[in-house]
Amino acid sequence: MKINSLSLLFTVTALAGCASNQVAQTSAQDARTESCKAVSEGEIASLFDRWNQSLQTGDPHKVVANYAERSILLPTVSNKPRLLPAEKEDYFHHFLENRPSGKIDLRTVELGCNTAVDAGLYTFTFAKTGASVSGRYSFTYRWNGSEWLITSHHSSAMPEK
User: Whole-structure pTM over 0.85, yes or no?
Assistant: First the structure.
């Protein structure tokens, strides 16, 4: 009888331990779970249009409003990474002087949970000078609960002339 009682005690203790461990694992998973914003490739593609329209205003502050507070801009015509909003505004102040307008030439969009990447090729024409420049780009976006904002933007001129 002692052995059966001991076996029963061991089994109950083991099952209770497993159950509490499962509850702890479930709670930890629930704490990490976030709700994913439903989005289409077309919606992410339209974010470039929003950014490009902000360029048309000529106002660097309006352009920077497309970027998350914590984001990075790796621009085409500057060696300096722009991390702070004031640094981005400084870059766009100079970039906007030639009145740029961008057009997507080739794009691929990757969708994730509250994140998206739009990458490809684009061409800028500059109304002030008439020049045009082709480049490569990538925009990484994050849903902040109310809007999609740029978390990283890399742009570089095409290497082959």
Answer: no
